[in-house]
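Reviewer 2 asked us to include a model.

Predict the structure of this chain.
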Amino acid sequence: MNVLPYILFAGFFVACITHFWFYDELVKRQYLIARAAWEADDRPPGFWWAGDGSSTMRSWPRNRVLLRWFWSTPAWVREDAEAQALYSNFRATGWVGFGFWICFAGSIVVSAIWS
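Predicted model (structure tokens):
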């Protein structure tokens, strides 16, 4: 039995949970230091945290901000050292998770072809 796909999927899972945790911390930080930006982003919740006037059930603002932040750095992040560190970790864990996913999918395809 080939255990590689299981190991790769476990790595993907851990990277995703960590990525979501860093996202939650970024949203909390935005709420604390850049409330106007948080409100302009339609009060996005985290996965496990929501500020006043928001709810963890509001997936549209969360998904939109999650995707936008992955590709471009918000201005409020550039002004705060703690937010910069969280943002760097947020992006890094996103790329690590993507890498694990690509390797996992590739291992499934390769094992299907070779068997």
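Residues 4-114 form one domain. The longest helix spans residues 81-114. We have added this to the supplementary material.
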